[in-house]
Design brief:
By secondary structure, the protein is mainly β. It has one helix spanning 59-62, and strands at 2-3, 6-7, 9-15, 19-25, 29-34, 48-52, 64-69, 73-80, 86-94, 108-117, 119-124, 128-133, 138-143, 161-165. The radius of gyration is 16 Å and the shape is globular. The two termini are 28 Å apart. The model has no long low-confidence stretch (mean pLDDT 79).
Length: 174
């Protein structure tokens, strides 16, 4: 894939139902292509060529650690320049179940910070998202919980919930 006739140097990518997002370098940025309905920053209402997620332009200076894609949403860990480069989660796309913006479920959302810092891994399900704490012992989940996939009571959804804290001798691994 290319942007402005320039090949992309893809560092990492993930595939959603009808879209792909990637962290590319030279310069560092996140690009998405395919069909990611309603995403204001890229206009991905129709299948497209790669387009930059413009709300995350600061990546050129600070970088992104990782990303994940769900059915129609994407999240990334960004070293936040507004918070001493602390790793923070940013999400965008479909937010029907609060999978992209847990504090305000519904509709489609542009890329923005969700208020979760100090995480080192992300895992996106179809309509829910999980993040592993930097301590490798804490797991955070949000979004659709119709099947109990967040670890709480079935149909309890949207807010970020801490699922478990493991004893110090155990760690969550990818």
């Amino acid at each position: 894939p290319q942007i402005d006739s320039q090949p992309l140097n893809i560092r990492e990518f993930d595939v959603g139902e009808h879209h792909i997002c990637a962290i590319v370098s030279n310069p560092m940025r996140i690009v998405c292509w395919g069909n990611l309905p309603g995403l204001p920053s890229t206009g991905l209402d129709q299948p497209t060529d790669p387009r930059q997620v413009t709300e995350l332009d600061s990546l050129q200076e600070v970088g992104a650690a990782t990303l994940c894609t769900g059915k129609q949403h994407t999240c990334a860990i960004v070293n936040d320049p507004e918070d001493n480069h602390t790793p923070s989660v940013h999400c965008w796309g479909d937010n029907t179940y609060g999978q992209a913006q847990p504090s305000n479920p519904g509709g489609k959302v542009a890329a923005q910070k969700i208020g979760l810092n100090n995480v080192n891994a992300l895992y996106c399900g179809s309509n829910h998202t999980r993040a592993r704490g930097a301590d490798n012992r804490t797991l955070y989940c949000w979004g659709d919980n119709s099947e109990g996939q967040l670890g709480g009571a079935v149909n309890e959804e949207t807010s970020i919930s801490q699922v478990t804290v493991l004893p110090a001798e155990l760690n969550i691994r990818s």
